[in-house]
From TrEMBL:
Domain of life per record: Bacteria
Site (Essential for prephenate dehydratase activity): 180
EC number, UniProt record: 4.2.1.51
Pathway: Amino-acid biosynthesis; L-phenylalanine biosynthesis; phenylpyruvate from prephenate: step 1/1
Boundaries of every Prephenate dehydratase domain copy: 10-187
Residue ranges crossing the lipid bilayer per the database entry: none
InterPro entries given in the database record: ACT-like_dom_sf (IPR045865), ACT_dom (IPR002912), Chor_mutase/pphenate_deHydtase (IPR008242), Preph_deHydtase (IPR001086)
GO CC aspect terms: cytoplasm
Presence of the UniProt keyword Transmembrane in the record: no
Stated name of the protein: prephenate dehydratase
């Protein structure tokens, strides 16, 4: 990654210490970061906008469970910019107090995304009650602090380590290609400088007329820019109208600027959410 900043950075993570957001933050911004826990994504955006933190990590999509669509709207309506991304391999584990066994467990608690990633394993235990929580690590911490027996959490090995829990079952994610894409966010002109880019995240709207969206996509393609992701989200307050979120990858910045020029001319709404270096996969 081509980010320049002075360490240590205060970095907002969604969840508590031990959450996958913390792992992603340490992998991208250094092990000496000061993690700042935020229980919701809304809180994470507000902390970054108010400069309570220097940066934030935000999960945006998972290769198995799909996109975290509300985060696209949060980003679009914020003053933040994307300065980087990372694809973190998510290894889920069943965590419980020492002494517990698969037979003694009655309830399993975790983040809905984590639960969705482990449906095959959970399907083998229909007797367990499944409970959703704000965060994988918070579920683990509550079991540890409350010394709750008969209950397990799904979460990272870092959470097991931090909260003194045993790994009852390792690697319980259904698909071994389980990656979550995290964005690195800062306030515009914040403490992280981005020196190069080959990818941009944008959002736009098209006229309600035949071929309007197809024409925009063709213009992007004609500039030699590769469209790697496209989502449509409802435009709140304007029933059955949509905002499209897209990722563009380019070899040359000039080609991307040409695509931006066309979008400015043809889209009814257009915003760049960030220009950054495409991220790599981290295990
Ligand atoms: O609960 C956590 O540990 C998180 O960091 C959140 C989150 C998510 O929002 O998708 C992050 C990665 C995993 O895909 C599961 C949960």
């Amino acid at each position: 990654m081509t980010l320049e900043y002075e360490s240590p950075l205060r970095v907002a993570i969604q969840g508590v210490r031990g959450a996958f957001h913390e792992i992603a933050a340490r992998e991208t911004l250094g092990n000496d970061i000061i993690p700042v826990e935020c229980l919701t994504f809304r809180e994470l955006v507000a902390a970054t906008e108010s400069e309570k933190v220097d940066a934030a990590l935000m999960a945006i999509e998972n290769s198995v469970a799909g996109g975290i669509l509300p985060n696209y709207a949060l980003l679009r309506n914020s003053e933040l910019q994307i300065v980087g991304e990372v694809y973190l391999r998510i290894v889920q584990n069943l965590l419980a107090l020492p002494g517990e066994t698969l037979e003694s467990i009655k309830e399993v608690e975790s983040h809905p995304m984590a639960i969705q990633q482990c449906t095959d394993f959970l399907g083998e235990h229909p007797e367990w009650k499944i409970i959703e929580s704000e965060d994988t690590a918070l579920s683990a911490r509550k079991i540890s602090e409350g010394e709750i027996r008969g209950k397990a959490a799904i979460g990272s090995s870092l959470a097991a380590e931090l909260f003194g829990l045993n790994i009852l079952a390792p690697e319980i994610e259904s698909n071994k290609e389980n990656y979550t894409r995290f964005l690195i966010l800062t306030k515009k002109d914040g403490k992280i400088r981005n020196t190069t880019s080959n990818k941009a995240s944008i959002c736009f709207s098209a006229k309600h007329e035949p071929g309007a969206l197809a024409a925009i996509l063709k213009d992007i393609a004609d500039c030699g820019v590769d469209l790697t992701m496209l989502h449509s989200l409802p435009k709140v307050g304007a029933k059955w109208e949509y905002i499209f979120h897209a990722d563009l990858v380019y070899d040359s910045y000039m080609q991307y600027l040409q695509a931006v020029k066309t979008l400015n001319e043809t889209a009814t709404y257009f915003k760049v959410l960030g220009e950054y270096q495409a991220g790599s996969e981290i295990f």
